[in-house]
Amino acid sequence: MEYASLYWTFIRINIKAKIEYRAAFLLTFLSRGIVWSTEFALIWVLLYRFESIAGWGQYEIMFLYALNLTSYSMAAFFCFHPFTKLPAKVQSGEFDELLTKPMNPLLYLMSREFTASYFSNVAFGLLFIGICIYHLDLSLGLWDYAFLLVTLIGGMLIQASAFIYTAIPSFWMVRNTSLAQLFLFDFKDFIRYPVSIYPASIQVVLTLIVPYAFINFYPAQYFLNKQDFLLFHPVFQYLTLAVGAVLITGAILLWRWGIKHYHSTGS
């Protein structure tokens, strides 16, 4: 980490650039807040009509939504712009310039393209978590809040690894937007609701193949005192950080392999 201070400098520059235009930053904050709040409210209205889904009440399902939103936003700080824009950078040859720097290409890309505007997403995600805790009358102690933080960090690592995994094929494919759409958005639509409502095959996929259920469904069992595990062992509620660590390690190793076998566009 010889260049750690330099990476942090890139991040600070991005933050200062956003704050410099305070009105624009505030409008972005408010507009994103309206979007997420509207989506939160729509889920509440839907569940208000049906009262519960497979034994999960309104605020329990909204708790799933809040965990997903918060961990996604934490990952998006470092990963949304760097990896969703990577295919265009590779195609244009701009990515080759990044490889000429005497720095870790992955960390350099993530710090240079850091997206400060996701502060609003994290803020509203935490607000929604607080609303759910209040309405569910959850009595959480210091350990519980510490575990909540660990859960969010683990969820962030899972979501960050998804960004990286879906970007790596761009080293060999001209465009891979459909792959990114599938894994970054379409698959995650399943975890808006309890995984237990789906057939066993979907539960297996969301647990063992594309383990998004660890972002919110399994840890929610701990906070909500549920035993809705069905196919899997209750210990899964504690494994979010471990799953995130394994996935991000695999993503980094695959990234390094991709860099090693990357051939410049020549442009």
Automatic annotation (TrEMBL):
Keyword vocabulary terms for this entry: Membrane, Transmembrane, Transmembrane helix
InterPro entries tied to this protein: ABC-2_transporter-like
One Pfam family linked to the record: ABC2_membrane_6
Keyword Membrane part of the UniProt annotation: yes
Record-annotated membrane-spanning stretches: 21-47, 59-80, 118-136, 148-174, 195-215, 235-255
Recorded superkingdom: Bacteria
Name of the protein: ABC transporter permease
Organism: Paenibacillus paeoniae
